[in-house]
Amino acid sequence: MRLAILGGGGFRVPLVHSALLADRAEGRVTEVALHDTDPHRAAAIARVLAEQAQRAAEADPTAPPAPRLTVTGDLDTALRGAHFVFSAIRVGGLAGRAADERVALAEGVLGQETVGAGGIAYGLRTLPVTDRIARRVAEIAPDAWFINFTNPAGLVTEAMSRHLGDRVIGICDSPVGLGRRVARALGATGRSAVEVDYVGLNHLGWLRGLRIDGKDELPRLFTSTALLESFEEGRLFGADWLRALGAVPNEYLHYYYFNREAVRAYQAAPLTRGAFLDEQQSRFYARVADPGVPALRAWDEVRAEREATYMSESREAAGAGERDEASLTESGGYEKVALALMRAIARDERATLVLNVRNRGALPGLDADAVVETPCRVDAHGAHPLPGGPLPAHAAGLVTSVKAVEREVMAAADSGSRATAVKAFALHPLVDSVSVARRLVDGYVAAHPGLGYLT
Q1: Rounded to two decimals, what is the model's pTM?
Q2: Burial of 191 (C-beta count, 10 Å sphere; 0-12/13-18/19+)
Q3: How many other C-beta atoms lie within 10 A of the C-beta of residue 347?
Q4: How far apart are CA 255 and CA 259, in angstroms?
Q5: What span, in angstroms and rounded, lies between the C-alpha atoms of 379 and 351?
């Protein structure tokens, strides 16, 4: 089975490769094509993967051979013959993310990668590129399943679904991480059967039920401050606020519920998150260009620092402290979600996963084609959203508003209309003025040559 990875020179690609190395079942991926527009980054990651495969073989000589690896800068070559396509591209690179943050913060609004002004800017840069990719996939590999991790994941997935239908599925590791942390706080073990009731949009969802061995234990969570403060989201949002909501929000909702604090923390930080990662990863890629440097060891060191500093500004603003050890060391991030999804489809091994798919009635209040993040039953025919109850009014209003913004971003990317782009910014709950929206568009067009299509 052939897997094409778009953005194959991306820093987190070794996580996907590691998951593939651990998969020993029949019908596993036997060939991986790395596609990247930057040959130097692709070569660096290829070195990491080669050392990773060697380490796995030395640890278990009886394991199946590592997937055969090819590297190409040609999209059509990567796609041809692919059974699955995994996308983790970053249009504009981390320097583009850092610029998104700077422009927003200069206007006093949030510039986070997927939330608010930064997410809109990233979407406007990304959609023209992913639209071309979707068209090529439909032409060259129409039977392939497209797994999207490119941010803003829900927005990109919905835009690509216009060409790929239900064969494009978005993934995110936030819901599975949240469910795991809450289940652990409630005493679930590896032998427990855990089901999560989680729904919303990507980076805008709520855990509103968690069944352990058939019983919803989430109400018990709200009776104990000690339990609520034993996991990251509890410390981030505070026990009183979680009780008031009667649900546990995705960590990204901190940017909505504590927006002023988050913006101040970002403004006070020596570097924005994008600038920090840009510097960190630039050093990494430069370092592993030296063939004498152990690439896998260098990657492991940088990854550990990256994970430890994840959402550090929000944790600082909330007084939540450092990330707990379990969150830093446990496996089961987006690469595990991707592998579980591929397994379920390729082998018809039915699974229930939280995914980004077209709504189809799962979330009342949104139309059938709106991509939502919700539990899905997955089998050989793809991902099927499970029906869920309506969100409370406060959450439904937020979801509806942000979905309307996503639709305006899609319309602006399709038409090249600057006025529609202004509308997208102005309608977002975290942008507080039409005048600010106009200045944001001006600032982003000046910062990104790729946005010159907005007229």
Answers
A1: 0.94
A2: exposed
A3: 15
A4: 5
A5: 7
Q: Residue 187 burial (CB < 10 Å; 0-12/13-18/19+)?
A: exposed
pLDDT band for position 321 (cuts 50, 70, 90)? low
Residues 64, 69: Cα–Cα separation, whole Å? 15
Round to whole Å and give the CA distance between 143 and 227. Answer: 46
- Show Cβ contacts of residue 273 under 8 Å, excluding neighbours closer than 6 positions: 97, 101, 112, 113, 266, 312, 313
The 10 Å Cβ neighbour count of residue 276 is: 18
Dump pLDDT digits (tens) for 272-292.
999 999 999 999 999 999 999
Q: Of 98, 336, 260, 153, whose CA–CA distance to 161 is shortest?
A: 153
Q: How far apart are CA 279 and CA 283, in angstroms?
A: 6
Contacts of 393 (CB under 8 A, 6+ apart): none
Closest CA to 324 of 214, 429, 184: 184
Which uninterrupted H or E stretch holds 282?
helix 273-288
Q: How many CA atoms lie within 13 A of 287 on its CB side?
A: 16
Mean pLDDT in residue range 76-98: 97
CA distances (Å), 96 to each of 4, 252, 273, 407, in order? 25, 20, 12, 22
H-helix segments, 206-258: 218-221, 225-228, 232-237, 239-245, 254-257
Rounded distance between C-alpha atoms, residue 284 and residue 281, angstroms: 5
What the block records as the tokens of 286 is 């430069």
